[in-house]
Amino acid sequence: MNQEFTDAVYQIVGAIPAGRVASYGQVARQAGYPRHARFVGRLMSRLPEGSALPWHRVIRGDGGLPLAGTPSGEIQIQRLSDEGVTVLGNRVPKSCFWQP
DNA sequence: GTGTTGACATGCT
DNA sequence: AAGCATGCCAACA
């Protein structure tokens, strides 16, 4: 399997600064695999909770929260708000997106 | 080896 | 503006 890709994704997600968010496609693209947006999401979902990975900073390209309505989503919103990200309902302004 | 699934993206209606 | 349809790729059964 692509350990490289997995590692790259971890790197990218871990490199997202607080107060900023990045889309799955964005992360995948930065990792060097533009078509693996889904795989990024898959990695997030399969990730252990104890992981120090800021998965809550990874959202959809539209700024929508895929986990909206679920406990994890609430936690995600809570954390993002705590980090200074403006979360309107189940969405985030594009201005909060990570700009490399 | 085949078929289905998924924390997505993009385009068209 | 919102919703529907297609594409993409890797893991799982």
From TrEMBL:
Residues 4-85 form the Methylated-DNA-[protein]-cysteine S-methyltransferase DNA binding domain. It holds the Pfam family DNA_binding_1. It comes from the Bacteria. Keywords: DNA damage. InterPro entries: ATL_DNA_repair (IPR052520), MethylDNA_cys_MeTrfase_DNA-bd (IPR014048), MethylDNA_cys_MeTrfase_DNAb (IPR036217), WH-like_DNA-bd_sf (IPR036388). The keyword DNA damage applies. PANTHER family: 6-O-METHYLGUANINE DNA METHYLTRANSFERASE, ALKYLTRANSFERASE-LIKE PROTEIN 1. This is Methylated-DNA-[protein]-cysteine S-methyltransferase DNA binding domain-containing protein. It comes from Alloalcanivorax venustensis ISO4.
